[in-house]
Write a structure and sequence with these properties.
The protein is α+β, with helices and mostly antiparallel strands and 159 residues long. The chain is built from 3 helices and 9 strands; from the N terminus they run H-E-H-E-E-E-E-E-E-E-H-E. It has a 5-stranded antiparallel sheet, with no helix packed on it. A 4-stranded antiparallel sheet has the order 2-1-3-6. The longest helix is centred in the N-terminal third of the chain and has 20 residues. The radius of gyration is 18 Å and the shape is globular.
């Protein structure tokens, strides 16, 4: 009986990290990376966190906005979660944008915001998560992201 109790306690302790990270919370972490400031390590950078439906026309008030570097993305949430990153303030599409749509419940990591075929939906399937993107390029887009909008904002099949 005592070993059964110990096994249950061990199971609870080992399960806690899984439960803590699978809360289903939808959020976008927009990381600002710069190898000269932080080195080449995984997440040695500052980030801005946006909760689901927290549309931001301008997030230049955050201290990392004026820093040199480029943005990367971590997106959590359920399948169907959709967010658009814009290359200018005010959801302006003239300076490029990237639409990300989650296809499963795993966290999506996008390390290069400019690595996609422009003007068409591209499906990405990795161990970290599956998603689709639609990219409209502009010069230095990954360094200029300035506004974020959740959900579908266009009519038709393509933004």
């Amino acid at each position: 009986m005592k070993s059964f109790k110990n096994a249950l306690i061990l199971l609870a302790v080992l399960s806690f990290p899984v439960l803590a990270f699978s809360s289903g919370k939808t959020e976008l972490n927009l990381w600002k990376r710069n190898a000269n400031l932080y080195g080449p390590c995984g997440h040695c950078a500052d980030f801005v966190n946006f909760s689901e439906n927290e549309n931001r026309k301008d997030f230049s008030e955050f201290n990392l906005y004026d820093q040199d570097g480029y943005y990367t993305v971590n997106l959590t949430g359920s399948a169907g979660t959709m967010v658009t990153l814009y290359g200018d303030r005010g959801f302006d599409t003239d300076h490029g944008y990237l639409v990300i749509v989650k296809k499963d419940d795993r966290m999506v990591e996008v390390e290069d915001l400019e690595a996609f075929t422009p003007g068409q939906w591209v499906d990405i399937n990795t161990q970290e998560g599956s998603y689709s993107v639609f990219y409209r390029p502009n010069q230095n887009f990954k360094t200029r992201v300035a506004s974020v909008k959740w959900g579908k904002w266009w009519t038709g099949s393509n933004p």
